[in-house]
Structure formats: C-alpha cells, structure tokens
Design goal:
Chain A is built from 10 helices and no strands. With 223 residues, chain A is mostly helical. Chain A has 2 domains: 107 residues, Cytochrome c-like domain (Cytochrome Bc1 Complex, Chain D, domain 2); 85 residues, Cytochrome Bc1 Complex, Chain D, domain 2 (Orthogonal Bundle). Chain A starts with 17 loop residues before the first helix and ends with a helix. Chain B has a single domain, classed as Porin, CATH 2.40.160. In chain B, strand 13 and strand 14 form a beta hairpin. Chain B contains 6 helices and 21 strands. By secondary structure, chain B is mainly β. The chains are: A mainly alpha (223), B mainly beta (475). At the A-B interface, helix 1, helix 2 and helix 4 of A face helix 4, strand 1, strand 8 and strand 9 of B.
Chain lengths: 223, 475
C-alpha cells in the first residue's frame, strides 16, 4: 500500500476513466520516483507499476508476486494477457468469486487501462520462486487428472489448454506453482458459477472435491 | 465509578490516574471500506483486530483510496486537492447491559445506607462519529468524537492524524515512513497487543475498576497530544519515536478564562515532553504472522491542583517510567482464525511530589501489568476470547489506601496492595461483519490486594465479577 491513491495526472487521459490515468503521473510526481513531465509514458507506466506492486499489491501478493499466503494467488511469471483480463474483470465487477468481490473489486476500481497493462507486464516479468512439495500420492493422482482428465466423468485433460508443463499460453493462465488452496477455491467457484467462465464451468462441473484437491496439489508442486 | 472519600484530598498522581480510567475504546470504521472498496476482512480478522494488510494501510496514513476524487492541480501538475466524492464518515454505537455479581453500596446519602441498583442498561454506552480516511494525498485521519453515557457529553476520543509516504528501495522492498499526531500513547500502534487497541476491545463502564494502572495503559488517553515519527521497513521492521505533552480537555486558565496556558487549577500536567518509543518486528509465512516488540513512555507529572484547591505547576514532579514488551501471533484463514497475544508493562514510579506531600507511603514503587489472550473465530462469524490479566506491585497505603472509617470499601485496599488478577471470557456472534453481539464475563481472583475481604469491609474480589452484554455496530 502506499500513501498514494491510484490516480495520476500526466498521461493522456482516456475518456472512460480519466482520473484513474491521472493517478499514474501524480503518483510519480508526488513520490519522486518519476517526473511529472515524463516524456516517455511507457517508462512512467513501468515505474508506476513497480511502485504500485511493491507498495500496495505486495502486502497480499508478496514481493515480486511470490505470495506467501495461499489465499492470494502467486502472480510472478503469469501471462500478461491473463492478468490484464482479470484486472479488467475485477474493475468491471464481472469476476465474482468471493475474494475477488471482497478485495479486488475495490482495488481495481480506479485502475486505468494503461495501469492495468503496466501491472500485468510487471508481474509477467517477475521470477517465480521454488515450487512447494506435497503429498506424493495426491500429487500423482493430480498429475493423472491434469494430463489425461477423467474420461468416465467427462472431465477433459487440463493439459490440453494449460500445457503439459502447466505453464499456460498467452490465452490460458500459467498454473504451475500456484497455491493449492487458491486453485481449489477457484475450481469450486467455477463449479458453482460464482466465477462465471463457461469453459471452466464445463471442465469443473463433474469434479469431486478430492479430485480438485489432487489437481491443486499437483499444480502447486510444479516448477 | 464512585470516588472514595478517603482519596478526595490526596491528589496523588497514581490514584487520580485511576479515577479517570474509563472504558476501553475500540473502533471499527466502515468509512475505510468505502474508501478502499474492500471488505472489512481485508484489514480486520474481526474488528477491531487488524490483519497484516490493515497494519500496512494504517502505517500508510489511511490514505489508500479506490474511489473517484474531486481534484485540483497547479500548472506544474502538482496535486493541490484530492477529495473523495463521499466523505469518509462513520458512526458507531455500543449498547450494553451490565450485571455485577454483588451490588455495591449506595453512598448518595451516607446517613441512610442503601444499595446501588444492580444491572445497568446503557443506551448507548457510547455513540461515536468518525472521520476516518484520506484528507489529502499523504495525509489521513482517524478522528473520533464520542458521546458517553457516563459523562453525558460529547468529547474527543481516540484520534490519530498521519502524514505518510513510501519509498521503493533498490531491492524492491518498501520503506514506509511518516508522522503521527495523536492523543493516546499506543493509539497509533499497528498491532493489537498494545494497550489502546488491545483486548478487551470493549468493556463495561458500570463496574468497579481496580485502583492501579500504569500510565501507558490508557491512563493518559485523550488528555495528551503527541507527535511521533515512524518507519516501517519491508512491512516487517517498525521503529517509532516521539513525545507527548499535556492537552487537557475542559481546562481554562483562571486568570484569562481562555483554554490556556495551563495553570495550577489542573492536576497531573506533563513536565516538558514525555518521550515515547516503539520497536517491533513482524514475520509472515503462509497463513501465519508473528510479531514481537517493545515500547515505552517516560513521563514526569507535575501534581498541580484543582479548581477549588489550586497549586502551582512546579517541581517536584512524579516520574513514571514505563517499559513494555508485547507479542502477537495470528493464523488467518477463511474458516479458522486464531490470535494469541499479550503484553507486559513494567512501571517504575519515583513519587517525588506525592511522597513529599505525604500522599504515598513510599518514595519509589513498582507496578507491573500483564495481559495474555487467545481469540478464535469460525468464519468470522462465531468466536470468543479467553484472556488473563494481572497487575501487581509495591504495596503503598498512601496510593492504594484502605477504608477511612471501616465502613465504606469497594474501591479501597485493606493492605495497601495494588494486586489485581483475573480472567475475561467473551463469546461473540457477528450476523454481519459490521455488527457484533458479545457476552463477556470478567472474574477476579484478586482485587486491590486481596481475594477475600480485600477492602477490609467484607467485600471479596469475586463480588466485582461482572456479566456484560454488548451490541456493537458501525456503519
């Protein structure tokens, strides 16, 4: 968190969220990290994102997006496209899982498109820390489900979209190394449609809790 | 609390301090939620206890905002104004009912002894209005004014004004630094292990209070003004240093009739500046957070006088040197939340003034207060706290006097000892995150130096046990 609001007055002002963008430069001007007349808005955006990430986001998401608390997802090395989409969903209040409502709807409310893009780039460029280990049998079961799905229950292989190494693509999020508790909670939210994503609802609708736990444990253990 | 006749003329610092000991003030402020757009759970386990995020929010001066602003900038694009379109105002109410195990004597007419009514309804016990949130880009406030049923008036309550900023260090760690201007030592602290926001978070004001309390333990609250500078490195290492001066409420200069300068019609005025210090370290891993720290205050109080019996504000003074340690452990999960916390405050008294005036039996005394508590909540909805408290120190028949005539006790000590010990058990239910229903039982095993017949008039410590029902909400 910082003594700044998330507003800033020096970048070109888009029509839809003027003061959110203003926030960017004001912040830098006030804190001495940047110049209020920064000619290069990309540099200004980058500095702003770093400041925001270290001073605000890190309280929950950890230094460099390597969160310690399993309630808050690890963001280090996540694909920028995915992060951008999620931040926009938070801002638009269209992502409806419980922690999104309690934390991120507010946090993202006044972020400009430029701030969102810069934050996404910042986290995408961070290096994830070492993966956690877990229950071996559960991880093996999770690996099986992740790579091959459960044909008898109509559960497709996660790997078909998220990649065999769980590193994702520009369209699908990286899952390797994510907190098991977070993954489990999200699968539950997809299943209940609190987080309303048709594809993931389809994937998760037949998963049992034990199967979700297994997949989550497997993913947390992946580098 | 009834003022014992035996103490009416002593004017001793410690006892006078006890007489102003009031109910614990505790806060929960929904205007922060409106300003940040985040739910209570971001900053609180259950109010008023803070989470790690809440502590960092406070250190940053209450200024994080995620709402549209009314702005002004100069031609160099420096911000001149940043006002939330909705002011950060909140109200808070506490409605309570208190039952003592045994009623206390009614001294309204000493010629016709009676019994005070047992079972006190407070509607409200306390009603507060807050300005809690950003004032300007680096300037925030936690400003509380309170109507209390004991005084029947509206007055200033816990207040903490902050200027804060943050630097990003080359290794991508943060350094938050700032200045706090406040009116109660430890109200500015980030952890709930220190007195101002420690357990019990609310207590009845219709019970019998023990005679002794240390200065830093709420005794000076709302009667002082302090300024301190602080720094929080990497959201883990915290250091603070500052000082307090007397800022008496309702005091006027006898000569000018103005609010100051303070003169001999007021008592217990800080001589010079009372230095305050604090250091703490917090470590977070997984769902756990642990803090250990120390804090202290060194206060010299000029005894002064009263409006009916003025005495110049001059030496000798009484000196109270408080040094305290504290810790806090938190486990924060969606389903289970556990906090274990405590503090130990040691006070060295050098009663130069009171001893010279024969108000104390000893020139120097010690007083130690220890509190430990554990809180559990299930889904932030149902929970409880079990707490232990103990105050012990040097016996002093001047400071902690006995019953003058052997008839009126309750707030006296037969043996001059300040020792008080007991337990508090509390059960809470929160139908919503800003509404709390509590039942609290306080049990004394020792009171003012004794377990049985502590006042020499036949009252036992356990007679002061109390049952307290509380409805506490904020909006």
């Amino acid at each position: 968190m910082s003594s700044l609001d998330l507003h800033h007055p020096n970048v070109r002002i888009p029509l839809r969220a003027p003061w959110a963008v203003h926030a960017l430069t004001a912040t830098l001007a006030w804190t001495g990290l940047g110049c209020a007349f920064a000619a290069d808005t990309d540099v200004a955006n980058e500095q702003f994102a770093r400041k925001l990430a270290v001073a605000v986001c890190a309280s929950c998401h950890g230094p460099g997006g390597n969160s310690e608390q399993p309630k808050f997802p690890r963001l280090a090395g996540q694909h920028a496209n995915y992060l951008t989409a999620q931040l926009r969903n938070f801002r638009a209040q269209t992502r409806g899982d419980s922690d999104a409502i309690a934390y991120m709807w507010g946090m993202a409310a006044e972020l400009s498109d430029e701030s969102i893009d810069a934050l996404a780039k910042y986290y995408a460029s961070q290096h994830p820390t070492t993966a956690a280990s877990g229950n071996r049998a559960e991880i093996d079961r999770g690996r099986e489900i992740y790579l091959h799905g459960i044909a008898s229950e109509g559960v497709p292989a996660c790997a078909s979209c998220h990649g065999a190494d769980a590193r994702g693509t520009s369209d699908f999020p990286k899952l390797a190394g994510q907190h098991a508790q977070y993954v489990l909670k999200q699968l539950g939210a997809f299943q209940s449609n609190m987080r309303n994503v048709a594809v993931m609802h389809g994937v998760a609708q037949n998963l049992r809790v034990a199967e979700m736990k297994a997949v989550a444990s497997y993913l947390e253990a992946q580098p | 609390m009834a003022r014992p006749r035996s103490l009416s003329y002593t004017g001793t610092v410690a006892v006078a301090a006890v007489l102003v000991l009031c109910a614990w003030r505790a806060e929960a402020v929904p205007s922060f939620a409106r300003q940040t757009g985040m739910a209570c759970e971001a900053c609180h386990t259950v109010y008023p206890e803070l989470t790690h995020f809440g502590r960092v929010f406070k250190a940053n001066g209450y200024v994080l905002d995620n709402v549209k602003q009314v702005r002004d900038v100069d031609q160099r694009k420096q911000q001149l104004l940043s006002l939330a379109q909705v002011p950060p105002l909140s109200i808070m109410a506490q409605i309570s009912y208190t039952q003592l195990k045994e009623p206390i004597p009614d001294l309204a007419n000493v010629d016709i002894p009676g019994e005070a009514q047992n079972g006190t309804a407070a509607f409200p016990q306390q009603l507060s209005i807050f300005y809690a949130g950003k004032i300007a880009p680096h300037f925030g406030a936690f400003f509380q004014i309170t109507y209390g049923n004991d005084s029947g008036t509206v007055s200033i309550d816990n207040t903490d004004l902050r200027f804060a900023d943050v630097r990003i260090l080359p290794d991508d760690r943060s350094l938050v630094y700032g200045v706090s201007l406040n009116n109660n030592p430890t109200v500015q602290d980030l952890w709930n292990s220190t007195p101002a926001f420690g357990f019990p978070y609310s207590a009845s004001n219709a019970t019998v209070s023990p005679l002794a309390a240390t200065q830093i333990d709420g005794t000076l609250g709302q009667d002082v003004a302090g300024m301190s500078a602080y720094a929080l490195w990497n959201e883990s290492l915290y250091a603070e240093f500052g000082g307090y001066r007397s800022a008496k409420q309702g005091a006027t200069n006898q000569l000018t009739g103005a609010a100051g300068p303070l003169d001999g019609t007021v008592s217990n005025v800080i001589s010079g500046v009372a230095p305050y210090w604090r250091i703490a370290y917090e470590y977070n891993w997984n769902r756990h957070s642990i803090e250990v720290g120390a804090y202290g205050l060194d206060v010299r109080l000029l005894p002064g006088g009263a409006s009916g019996a003025p005495f110049p504000l001059q030496r000798p003074y009484n000196r109270f040197k408080d040094v305290a340690q504290d810790f806090q452990y938190q486990f924060v999960d969606d389903t289970h939340l556990l906090t274990v916390s405590g503090t130990r405050i040691h006070e060295s008294m050098n009663l130069g003034a009171t001893f010279a005036a024969q108000g104390s039996a000893n020139a120097t005394n010690d007083l130690t207060t220890t509190r430990l508590w554990a809180t559990y909540y299930w889904r932030r909805r149902v929970g409880g706290t079990l707490g232990f408290f103990s105050t012990s120190g040097t016996a002093d028949t001047g400071l902690y006097p006995g019953s003058p005539d052997g008839l009126v006790g309750v707030v006296t000590s037969a043996n001059g000892s300040p020792d008080t010990r007991g337990w508090i058990a509390e059960v809470n239910y929160l139908p919503w995150l800003n509404t709390k229903l509590s039942v609290q039982y306080t049990a004394y095993t020792k009171f003012n130096g004794g377990g049985t017949n502590y006042d020499g008039v036949g009252r036992n410590a356990s007679d002061n046990n109390s049952l307290y029902f509380l409805l506490w909400f904020a909006y």
